[in-house]
């Protein structure tokens, strides 16, 4: 998504630069400033996405070699582009021709980049790929390959959205949040003191429920949002499990047509308890997924689910004197 977004930012900046001479001085300054902002965004998006793509293609721990070859190719392509540009510019004399060539070349640029992004089959899980693969496994018991998941993946998707097999929006999930955010989600916040009162479920209940897990998850039916707190010893597999668990609960509530105020805390707590202990429920389906994911070609050692600064909590049993 960010690789293609970088190209969109850059091409938009080029169009704004071409429009700016036709404007008065004040609007021109604003337009050129906005163009510079877009180029800065392009640099950030392109640089961050390049790191992930380079790590994906460096399958033999040859990241340095890959980056060196990539830089050499960029240099050659830039020189060829300058040569081709010099030839094209020498043949253009009218304003209509300039804009025609600009729009045509930018369209080709975006179309080829769109095709290139779609051709990449990443083996790590982001939020959208987790939705696609885990919902298919929990529903049918089959693991999609990275190629099959890429065919179903959209380039642009709202961050944190949970979907069941590409269906409509089931809600949102926030992973790696602080314990404070979780407490505010289960109770009413006092704006003056910041304290929480009248919690719909106690923290003690959640700690007991997830005593054997490396995460704590609660689903707010009214807000249609899953809140996931990660414990200190959490692994990438635990993060994937927490996301799949939230997706499973959102699907169960949706399949029962329990939305909004109908999804009470008692119902959600019951579903959570059943999903962890009831035979044939979430935990039973998840236990065998590890080897199946590896066999399907997925890299479970990296979980790209946290998109912002995240937190870890340390949970220790109290010692009674």
Short summary:
It is built from 12 helices and 6 strands. It has 321 residues and is of the alpha+beta class.
What does this structure look like?
This protein has 321 residues and is of the alpha+beta class. Helices cover 58% and strands 8% of the residues. It contains twelve helices and six strands. It has helices at residues 2-19, 25-57, 63-90, 95-119, 127-140, 146-152, 179-186, 203-209, 236-255, 265-277, 282-286, 289-295, and strands at residues 161-163, 169-175, 188-189, 196-197, 215-220, 225-230. The strands form two sheets. A four-stranded mixed sheet has the order 1-2-6-5, with helices on both faces. The chain has a two-stranded antiparallel ribbon with strand order 3-4. It is elongated.
Q: List segments where confidence is low: pLDDT < 50 over at least 5 consecutive residues.
A: none
Question: Total number of helical segments?
Answer: 12
Task: Specify the overall morphology.
Answer: elongated
Which structural category do the helix and sheet elements fall into? Answer: alpha+beta
Order of helices and strands: HHHHHHEEHEEHEEHHHH
Q: Strand share of the residues? A: 5-15%
Rounded to an integer, what's the Rg over CA atoms? 25 Å
Q: Please state the average pLDDT score.
A: 85
What is the fold's blueprint, element by element?
Layout (H helix, E strand, L loop, with lengths): L1 H18 L5 H33 L5 H28 L4 H25 L7 H14 L5 H7 L8 E3 L5 E7 L3 H8 L1 E2 L6 E2 L5 H7 L5 E6 L4 E6 L5 H20 L9 H13 L4 H5 L2 H7 L26
Parallel strand pairs: 2-6
Antiparallel strand pairs: 1-2, 3-4, 5-6
Helix pairs in contact: 1-2, 1-4, 5-9, 9-10
């Amino acid at each position: 998504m960010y690789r293609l977004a970088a190209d969109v930012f850059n091409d938009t900046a080029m169009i704004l630069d071409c429009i700016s001479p036709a404007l008065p001085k004040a609007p021109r300054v604003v337009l050129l400033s906005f163009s510079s902002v877009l180029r800065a965004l392009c640099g950030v998006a392109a640089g961050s996405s390049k790191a992930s793509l380079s790590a994906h293609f460096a399958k033999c721990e040859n990241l340095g070699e890959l980056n060196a070859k990539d830089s050499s190719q960029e240099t050659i392509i830039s020189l060829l582009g300058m040569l081709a540009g010099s030839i094209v510019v020498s043949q253009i004399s009218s304003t209509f021709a300039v804009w025609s060539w600009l729009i045509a070349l930018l369209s080709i640029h975006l179309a080829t980049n769109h095709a290139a992004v779609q051709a990449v089959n990443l083996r790590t899980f982001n939020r959208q790929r987790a939705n696609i693969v885990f919902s298919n496994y929990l529903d049918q018991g089959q693991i999609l390959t990275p190629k099959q998941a890429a065919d179903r993946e959209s380039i642009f998707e709202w961050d944190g959205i949970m979907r069941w097999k590409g269906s409509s929006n089931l809600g949102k999930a926030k992973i790696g949040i602080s314990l404070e955010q979780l407490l505010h989600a289960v109770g009413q916040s006092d704006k003056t003191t910041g304290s929480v009162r009248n919690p719909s479920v106690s923290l003690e209940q959640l700690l007991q429920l997830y005593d054997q897990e490396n995460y704590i998850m609660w689903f707010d039916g009214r807000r249609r949002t899953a809140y996931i707190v990660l414990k200190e010893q959490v692994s990438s597999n635990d993060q994937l499990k927490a996301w799949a668990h939230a997706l499973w609960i959102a699907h169960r509530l949706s399949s029962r047509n329990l939305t909004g105020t109908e999804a009470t805390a008692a119902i959600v707590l019951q579903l959570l308890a059943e999903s962890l202990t009831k035979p044939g429920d979430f935990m039973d389906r998840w236990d065998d997924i590890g080897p199946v994911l590896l066999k399907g070609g997925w890299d479970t050692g990296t979980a790209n689910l946290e998109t912002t600064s995240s937190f870890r909590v340390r949970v220790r049993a109290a010692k009674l004197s």
